[in-house]
């Protein structure tokens, strides 16, 4: 009892200082980036790292393997982790408001399963990596497009419900298509690649991947930032939002497009990574409250930091890589159960 | 009664309105008009179509027949924000999904006055505080909306409608979840708003509330308007018996108020 | 219940009467399971890709079909009458797609599985055998057991002479290589990385079935993760740290990119141009599937690792193996296509392809 009260008190105090929290999260992310950049199989000390960065800043020529590892392998991977985590968490935060459900994740409309199918098709036809990525990206967008079209053709009283159901149906269809291709794929060659892709990994990230994905994520972020207040209003539900003067169907389309673009861009380079978009916005809401103006940056900072942390563990815990999807689920699932138990406590 | 009302231009007009969904009519032939400074009270049994009528009046549901005019313009020609600047809506108190603070909830009423990409300014916030103050719940402004009682939520939703600054407010059973004291708070607030020249439409299950605040009562039965007019003319014991199947006697108090006393001995007639 | 049992007994009796016009022989398979097989076995159903290759090399005329359809690039390397056999699906292993009714329809005298003889597969064999009434032979698929497995299946299929020819070829290969690498210090052996997948970042961990021929040919697999088995993902950083001096791949996309990619350029194998593209037709040389096909891969790898002692004429060696095991006479063009890059040439003509 007493303990419960004190956590509630602490929670209230925390959400009363959102700016301080956002600064704290930013600081934490910077520290994580520094730690992640100096961690890895190839030994680079913190001092060597600073020296290499100094060389880069002052425009000197890179020296040897250290600089290659740092600038071509590790930093791209670190930034990809931050980018993917931030994008997934932002999309999750937007979707949880849009669908008025804190248990919603960015793949509810099938973007991940669509992207998965795109990648599996690419692997099945032995396409080069850039084509696999593009296929994943395009199929992710196309799947959500199909879901949206189906939902808008069904004239129901509950547009959100119809959307979610269409997402479930199309999602399971793409899942079936993936399974079919897994059966048809070469079991010794393509099947492992498919399995690895569907589990998510940042192990083959290049600078080019980050350079391709980052602008798309930023473009998708702009409408979410600009419409931050209206996204709050939308989370009250379709009718209330309309009564408050928000054109909810147009706004919904914009949010779906932004969240899909974000998710598809990062999933195309990272593979399917679950849980981040579900758990992180939840946690961010506990820290800064549900107001999207603060929820969005907090989710992005925490999502970026979380995925970076998980990826750093994934590449340094064992000699080989642990797929990210496995780690995020192992960490995410119990954590989420804890959140649920705690949340019920707070509402009673 | 207030005989000046018909002289003013009505803000909300429904003309032979049909409500409901394609293939499933809920209400038909509903013609109403609400002018500034006027309170219209909608009475009718559960399921008679009050909420559906409200949603159609607000343009949340398309009219199945007839039309809705806001400030003389067909509602279908108006953008959402245009409607919201003219008519505010107080839904029945609901449980929110997300723990917004009360002040955030109320300040959302300002949305129709904000630019597409804007967030509320300090001026919007002080308007929201003003509205909370008017309902006597400003001290709740920093509390999470999910933590306050159903009655307090209803008051907060009314405050949000006030912050919306619209000349007309549509309230769906605003007193339904309130305790006795808060019912009085809401009804006197309605009287105050009427005094300020707002047009108010509300639905209620309590004839007493209609007697105490309404200029016009519309009695709904099976999706149609049975009668419409001043409370004393509409809420006759016969009409109430027809609609609710209950014998009632009306008691006139000193000062011109009327109370409605159901006959619990005979109970429900149907 | 009892009626069904009686019916089943009747059917089994009928099947036995009709199928066993030839005298039955009792044998023991690699799983230690006694099996009753007819004197004359004419049709064999291979339960998976490894078994189908074992059967193809030993007694192709007894095949009923392939587990998967052959790809267009693979067909020319399979002897004419057998390349057109139907695809019947696989009965075991990952993603079993064969239907027991399909198995019964082709009326094999024997079901053959070649691979693990662990309990899972023993119980699968028993289950299928009791369901179909067809004897199910489980043959040990470990690479080292290859000669013994060839001889055992030769005995089961009554093709002992051919089995002996192939088994002694494999034994001779093993012995040759073993005697050479026995004298080579562990630290002097090449450090080998098996690059799988188009980005080359999938690999097989040391000690798994997918990579065992690397050690067998006298190499050291740099993907050494104690306690792990099978195919894993690696990061390029780990490859840089491991710094292999030899890279083996069968992925042409990876092979075409590896010399152009700056991230791989510092790795010793790339600097020394020791990246080799494995032939894959009709079956993989390294793995894919893990079966008899790896014998030629073993000879090839040993030659790459120790060109002075074990290197020979790859063309002649390949021709001989394909003739002896795969029943095909390779034309010059076919041979050229097959082993085009397996000597590790720089893909200078890659663009022309």
From TrEMBL, chain A:
<feature type="transmembrane region" description="Helical">
    <location>
        <begin position="322"/>
        <end position="341"/>
    </location>
</feature>
<feature type="transmembrane region" description="Helical">
    <location>
        <begin position="213"/>
        <end position="231"/>
    </location>
</feature>
<keyword id="KW-1003">Cell membrane</keyword>
<comment type="similarity">
    <text>Belongs to the binding-protein-dependent transport system permease family. FecCD subfamily.</text>
</comment>
<dbReference type="Pfam" id="PF01032">
    <property type="entry name" value="FecCD"/>
</dbReference>
<keyword id="KW-0472">Membrane</keyword>
<feature type="transmembrane region" description="Helical">
    <location>
        <begin position="251"/>
        <end position="280"/>
    </location>
</feature>
<feature type="transmembrane region" description="Helical">
    <location>
        <begin position="20"/>
        <end position="44"/>
    </location>
</feature>
<feature type="transmembrane region" description="Helical">
    <location>
        <begin position="78"/>
        <end position="96"/>
    </location>
</feature>
<feature type="transmembrane region" description="Helical">
    <location>
        <begin position="161"/>
        <end position="184"/>
    </location>
</feature>
<protein>
    <submittedName>
        <fullName>Iron complex transport system permease protein</fullName>
    </submittedName>
</protein>
<keyword id="KW-0812">Transmembrane</keyword>
<feature type="transmembrane region" description="Helical">
    <location>
        <begin position="108"/>
        <end position="130"/>
    </location>
</feature>
<feature type="transmembrane region" description="Helical">
    <location>
        <begin position="292"/>
        <end position="310"/>
    </location>
</feature>
<dbReference type="InterPro" id="IPR000522">
    <property type="entry name" value="ABC_transptr_permease_BtuC"/>
</dbReference>
From TrEMBL, chain B:
<keyword id="KW-0547">Nucleotide-binding</keyword>
<dbReference type="InterPro" id="IPR027417">
    <property type="entry name" value="P-loop_NTPase"/>
</dbReference>
<dbReference type="InterPro" id="IPR003593">
    <property type="entry name" value="AAA+_ATPase"/>
</dbReference>
<dbReference type="GO" id="GO:0005524">
    <property type="term" value="F:ATP binding"/>
</dbReference>
<feature type="domain" description="ABC transporter">
    <location>
        <begin position="7"/>
        <end position="247"/>
    </location>
</feature>
<keyword id="KW-0067">ATP-binding</keyword>
<dbReference type="InterPro" id="IPR050153">
    <property type="entry name" value="Metal_Ion_Import_ABC"/>
</dbReference>
<protein>
    <submittedName>
        <fullName>Iron complex transport system ATP-binding protein</fullName>
    </submittedName>
</protein>
<dbReference type="Pfam" id="PF00005">
    <property type="entry name" value="ABC_tran"/>
</dbReference>
<keyword id="KW-0864">Zinc transport</keyword>
<keyword id="KW-0813">Transport</keyword>
<dbReference type="InterPro" id="IPR003439">
    <property type="entry name" value="ABC_transporter-like_ATP-bd"/>
</dbReference>
<keyword id="KW-0862">Zinc</keyword>
<dbReference type="InterPro" id="IPR017871">
    <property type="entry name" value="ABC_transporter-like_CS"/>
</dbReference>
<keyword id="KW-0406">Ion transport</keyword>
UniProtKB/TrEMBL annotation, chain C:
<protein>
    <recommendedName>
        <fullName>Fe/B12 periplasmic-binding domain-containing protein</fullName>
    </recommendedName>
</protein>
<dbReference type="InterPro" id="IPR050902">
    <property type="entry name" value="ABC_Transporter_SBP"/>
</dbReference>
<dbReference type="GO" id="GO:0071281">
    <property type="term" value="P:cellular response to iron ion"/>
</dbReference>
<feature type="signal peptide">
    <location>
        <begin position="1"/>
        <end position="24"/>
    </location>
</feature>
<dbReference type="Pfam" id="PF01497">
    <property type="entry name" value="Peripla_BP_2"/>
</dbReference>
<dbReference type="InterPro" id="IPR002491">
    <property type="entry name" value="ABC_transptr_periplasmic_BD"/>
</dbReference>
<feature type="domain" description="Fe/B12 periplasmic-binding">
    <location>
        <begin position="43"/>
        <end position="309"/>
    </location>
</feature>
<keyword id="KW-0732">Signal</keyword>
């Amino acid at each position: 009892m007493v303990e419960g009260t004190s956590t509630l008190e602490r929670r209230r105090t925390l959400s009363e200082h959102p700016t301080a929290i956002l600064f704290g999260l930013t600081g934490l992310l910077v520290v994580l980036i520094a730690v992640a950049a100096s961690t890895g199989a190839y030994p680079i000390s913190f001092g060597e790292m600073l020296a290499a960065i100094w060389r880069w800043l002052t425009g000197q020529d890179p020296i040897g393997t250290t600089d290659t590892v740092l600038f071509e392998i590790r930093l791209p991977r670190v930034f990809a982790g931050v980018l993917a985590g931030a994008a997934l968490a932002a999309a999750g935060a937007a979707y949880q408001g849009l669908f008025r459900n804190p248990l919603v994740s960015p793949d509810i409309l099938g973007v991940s399963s669509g992207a998965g199918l795109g990648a599996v098709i690419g692997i099945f036809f032995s396409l080069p990596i850039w084509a696999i990525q593009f296929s994943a990206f395009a199929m992710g967008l196309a799947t959500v497009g199909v879901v949206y079209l189906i939902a808008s053709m069904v004239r129901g009283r509950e547009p959100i419900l119809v959307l979610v159901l269409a997402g479930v149906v199309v999602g399971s269809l793409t899942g079936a298509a993936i399974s079919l291709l897994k059966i048809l794929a070469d079991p010794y060659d393509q099947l492992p690649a498919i399995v690895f892709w569907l589990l998510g990994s940042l192990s083959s990230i290049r600078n080019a991947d980050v350079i391709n994905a980052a602008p798309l994520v930023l473009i998708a972020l702009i409408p979410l930032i600009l419409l931050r207040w209206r996204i709050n209003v939308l989370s009250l539900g379709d009718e209330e939002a309309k009564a408050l003067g928000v054109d909810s169907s147009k706004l919904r389309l914009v949010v779906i497009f932004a969240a899909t673009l974000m998710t598809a861009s990062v999933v195309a380079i990272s593979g399917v990574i679950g849980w981040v978009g579900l758990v992180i916005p939840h946690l961010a809401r506990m820290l800064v409250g549900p107001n999207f103006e603060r929820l969005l940056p907090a989710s992005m900072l925490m999502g970026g930091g979380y995925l970076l942390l998980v990826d750093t563990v994934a590449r340094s815990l064992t000699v080989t890589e642990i797929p990210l999807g496995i780690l995020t689920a192992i960490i995410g699932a119990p954590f989420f159960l804890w959140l649920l138990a705690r949340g019920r406590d707070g509402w009673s | 009664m207030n005989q000046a009302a018909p002289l003013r231009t009505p803000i909300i007009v429904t003309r032979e309105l049909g409500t409901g969904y394609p293939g499933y009519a809920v209400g038909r032939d509903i013609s109403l008009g609400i002018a500034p400074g006027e309170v219209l009270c909608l009475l009718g049994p559960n399921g008679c179509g009050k909420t559906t009528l409200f949603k159609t009046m607000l343009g949340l549901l398309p009219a199945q027949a007839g039309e809705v005019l806001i400030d003389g313009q067909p509602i279908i020609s108006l953008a959402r924000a245009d409607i919201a600047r003219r008519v505010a809506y107080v839904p029945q108190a609901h449980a929110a999904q997300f723990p917004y603070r009360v002040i955030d909830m109320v300040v959302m009423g300002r949305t129709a006055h904000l630019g597409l990409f804007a967030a509320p300014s300090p001026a919007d916030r002080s308007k929201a505080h003003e509205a909370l103050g008017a309902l006597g719940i400003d001290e709740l402004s920093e509390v999470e909306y999910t933590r306050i009682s159903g009655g307090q939520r209803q008051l907060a939703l009314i405050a949000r409608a006030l912050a919306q600054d619209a000349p007309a407010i549509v309230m769906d059973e605003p007193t339904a979840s309130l305790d006795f004291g808060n019912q009085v708070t809401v009804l006197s607030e309605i009287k105050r708003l009427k005094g300020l020249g707002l047009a108010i439409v509300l639905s209620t299950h309590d004839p007493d509330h209609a007697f105490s605040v309404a200029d016009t009562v519309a009695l709904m039965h099976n999706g149609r308007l049975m009668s419409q007019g001043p409370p004393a003319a509409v809420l006759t014991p016969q009409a109430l018996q027809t609609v609710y199947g209950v014998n009632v006697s009306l008691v006139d108090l000193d000062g011109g108020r009327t109370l409605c006393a159901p006959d619990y001995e005979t109970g429900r007639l149907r | 219940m009892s009626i069904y049992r009686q019916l089943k007994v009747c059917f089994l009796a009928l099947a036995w009467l009709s199928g066993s016009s030839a005298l039955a022989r009792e044998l023991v398979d690699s799983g230690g399971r006694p099996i009753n097989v007819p004197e004359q076995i004419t049709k064999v159903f291979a339960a998976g890709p490894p078994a189908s290759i074992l059967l193809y090399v030993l007694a192709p005329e007894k095949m009923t079909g392939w587990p998967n359809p052959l790809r267009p690039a693979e067909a020319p390397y399979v002897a004419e009458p057998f390349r057109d056999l139907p695809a019947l699906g696989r009965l075991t292993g990952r993603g079993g797609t064969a239907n027991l009714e399909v198995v019964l329809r082709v009326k094999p005298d024997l079901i053959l599985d070649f691979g693990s003889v662990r309990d899972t597969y023993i119980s699968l064999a028993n289950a299928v055998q009791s369901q179909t009434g067809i004897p199910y032979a489980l043959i040990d698929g470990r690479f080292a057991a290859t000669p013994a497995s060839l001889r055992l299946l030769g005995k089961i299929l009554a093709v002992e002479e051919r089995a002996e020819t192939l088994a002694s070829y494999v034994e001779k290969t093993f012995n040759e290589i073993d005697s050479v690498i026995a004298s080579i210090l562990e630290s002097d052996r090449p450090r080998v990385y098996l690059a799988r997948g188009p980005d080359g970042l999938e690999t097989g961990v040391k000690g798994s079935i997918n990579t065992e021929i690397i050690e067998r040919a006298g190499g050291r697999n740099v993907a050494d993760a104690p306690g792990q088995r099978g195919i894993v993902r690696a990061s390029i950083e780990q490859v840089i740290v491991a710094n292999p001096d030899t890279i083996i791949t069968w992925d042409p996309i990876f092979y075409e990119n590896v010399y152009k990619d700056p991230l791989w350029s510092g790795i010793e194998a790339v600097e020394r141009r020791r990246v080799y593209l494995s032939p894959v037709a009709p079956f993989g040389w390294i793995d894919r599937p893990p079966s008899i096909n790896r014998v030629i891969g073993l000879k090839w790898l040993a030659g790459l690792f120790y060109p002075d002692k074990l290197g020979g004429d790859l063309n002649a060696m390949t021709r001989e193996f394909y003739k002896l095991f795969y029943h095909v006479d390779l034309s010059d063009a076919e041979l050229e296509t097959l082993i085009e890059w397996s000597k590790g040439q720089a893909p200078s003509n890659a663009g022309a392809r």
